[in-house]
Design brief:
Membrane topology: Multi-pass membrane protein
Protein name: histidine kinase
Number of strands: 13
EC number: 2.7.13.3
InterPro entries: BphY/WalK/GraS-like, HATPase_C_sf, HATPase_dom, His_kinase_dom, HisK_dim/P_dom, HisK_dim/P_sf, PAS, PAS-like_dom_sf
Strand content: 15-25%
Number of helices: 15
Helix content: 40-55%
Oligomer: single chain
Radius of gyration: 47 Å
GO cellular component, one term: membrane
Largest sheet: 8 strands, mixed
């Protein structure tokens, strides 16, 4: 099995040093100087070694060769000189070459001509040095050639014109060589700089692509025609249930992945983009419904466009999205849109609704017929109901804003001892409500008005579904470690599973006459104060053991105060 492959293998791109060409060329020229010096010493030593005794000129020649070899080795071992500059080291290196070659040529060592060796310092100065150094070296070589021509004319009585002409043409050739080498070296430098920048940009872009792919909410797989996963981001690994979370595995390893393998093969063979809803997993492992989109990647797409088979890799990119998350996002967007629209409608309804209520109250004062007063009361009742719905809708927008002041410590039992009787009297449910306050002196961080709103909403919801017998609605408090618990229990029928899933969502209700905002507002208010609310089917906190619907609130215990009295359990009376 192939090893793990990165989503964007930018580390595999070669790292380009800042100036590799100059370093390589310097090492090449420095090594060539050492080789030339060693060959000169070897050849001249073999030619002059048979002289007995050794001629004084031969001693000079061999001594010059030994010194030249030592100088070239020292230059090779020393750090490279500055590029494109004229410095002492360049002058020393070029000067040594010119001096040694001129001396050997002057001494006629071995009866050979050493003029061609002058090309080495000219090339070295042109390729590695500045324009002034290149032209200066060419000028120095030309002067040496002219000096040699003068010496031959004077000492050896050579004909002047051909000798000077040959020296001049050779010097002109070295000038041309210097200019051409300088131009080629500059072009190489520019191309290498462009290549370095392109590679750095490619490395950066590949790194950015990897970071983006790694953090995408959608899963991404890159699969070849054999089902080998070449790349896999964390989201895809989580959807597949792959433990290691790295690439290098095959989709044929598990039966739950075979659908993806078939889609990848169809995409590569048909060179088409596919989309399907599939289920990943088997009966023995968690199943995940996902939306799958496939795309052709690499040279395959280009080959399909050109009409040939292509020699590139056959790859398929698979995008995976969890259908449950898609549905949740869609539902959230719909609810947000509904909330904005409902808030706008509520603002428009409030003013005419208030006018209707006031007009109905004025009209009711003039009515004497019982039937007409009954109709007026019906109008007033529905006005109040609509006003409550409008307040609920507007409260949804209000509870989204964070609290600016910190909620003061509130005695929980003392607050509930005032809220529950008030609700019982106003809703005429005193005979059905029973409380058990078992957290005397416990303090919680909650705004009193917000706590009243939460309790009233939960009690209204309980009264809507509770039975008629005594103790059908129960409110109980307790202390558990550093938490306070408030339970609002009712003996209503169990909720359906579909209702439980959306219980705390806005605008969701199992009844057409409800706005579906009460429980949502309760959850929002609890979260604003660091509390949690949940639902469960549990036995009654008080009385005979029977199951009912229980809404449990967990609040943070922030302190205690002197006990407000012994734990109480009493029936609420009007």
């Amino acid at each position: 099995m192939a090893g793990p492959v990165s989503v964007a293998p930018w580390d595999a791109l070669p790292h380009v040093p800042q100036d590799p060409a100059f370093a390589r060329l310097w090492r090449g020229f420095a090594t060539a100087r050492v080789v030339v010096a060693a060959v000169l010493l070897l050849l001249l030593g073999m030619l002059m070694g048979g002289q007995q005794p050794l001629h004084p000129d031969s001693r000079w020649v061999l001594g010059i060769c030994v010194l030249y070899l030592l100088a070239t080795v020292a230059a090779r071992l020393m750090p490279q000189p500055a590029r494109r500059q004229v410095g002492p080291r360049w002058v020393f290196i070029i000067g040594v070459d010119l001096a040694v070659i001129a001396a050997l040529d002057l001494l006629q060592a071995g009866g050979a001509s050493y003029g061609p060796l002058l090309a080495l310092p000219v090339l070295m100065a042109s390729v590695l040095g500045s324009s002034r150094l290149a032209l200066g070296t060419a000028a120095g070589v030309t002067l040496l050639l002219l000096a040699e021509a003068s010496a031959r004319t004077l000492v050896l009585s050579f004909e002047m014109t051909p000798t000077y002409l040959q020296a001049g043409l050779t010097g002109l050739g070295y000038f041309a060589l210097a200019l051409l080498a300088q131009h080629l070296a500059g072009r190489l430098e520019r191309e290498e700089e462009s290549a370095r920048r392109s590679r750095d940009a490619a490395r950066l872009q590949a790194h950015v692509n990897e970071l983006v792919i790694e953090t995408l909410a959608a899963g991404i797989l890159v699969v070849d025609e054999h089902g080998l996963v070449r790349a896999c981001n964390p989201t895809a690994a989580a959807l597949l249930g792959h433990e290691s979370g790295t690439a290098g595995f095959r989709l044929s390893e598990r039966s739950g992945w075979l659908t993806l393998l078939e889609l990848a093969r169809r995409t590569i063979e048909g060179r088409a983009h596919l989309m399907a809803e599939v289920t990943i997993g088997t009966a023995d492992e968690p199943q995940r419904p996902v939306m799958v989109r496939t795309r052709v990647a690499g040279d395959t797409a280009e080959a399909g466009a050109d009409g040939d088979d292509g020699d590139g890799a056959q790859l398929c990119v698979i995008f995976l999205e969890d259908l449950r998350e898609l549905e949740a996002r869609l539902r959230t967007e719909k609810l947000a849109a509904m909330g904005r629209m409902s808030a706008a409608v509520a603002h428009e309804i409030r003013n005419p609704l208030t006018a209707i209520g006031q007009a109905n109250a004025l009209l009711d004062e003039e009515l004497t017929d019982p039937t007409q007063r009954q109709l007026s009361a019906l109008v007033q009742q529905n006005v109040q109901r609509l006003a409550q719905i409008v307040d609920d809708v507007l409260d949804v927008a209000r509870v989204k804003h964070p609290l600016t002041p910190r909620a003061a410590a509130l005695p929980l039992d003392l607050a509930l001892a005032g809220i529950c009787p008030d609700w019982a009297r106003q809703s005429a449910n005193a005979d059905r409500l029973r409380t058990s306050l078992q957290a005397p002196g416990a303090l919680c961080a909650f705004e009193p008005d917000h706590l009243r709103r939460v309790l009233v909403n939960l009690l209204d919801n309980a009264a809507r579904y509770a039975g008629t017998q005594p103790d059908s609605i129960q409110v109980a408090t307790s202390v558990s470690g550093d938490q306070l618990n408030v339970a609002v229990w009712s003996d209503g029928p169990p909720l359906e599973s579909t209702v439980q899933q959306h219980l705390f969502e806005p605008f969701f209700s199992s009844e057409s006459r409800s706005s579906g905002l009460g429980l949502y507002i309760c959850r929002q208010l609890c979260e604003r104060h660091g509390a949690r609310i949940g639902y469960g089917r549990t036995p009654a906190p008080l009385g005979a053991p029977r199951e009912g619907n229980n809404f449990l609130i967990h609040l943070n215990l922030v302190g205690t105060s002197p006990a407000d009295g012994e734990p109480s359990a009493a029936r609420i009376r009007a």
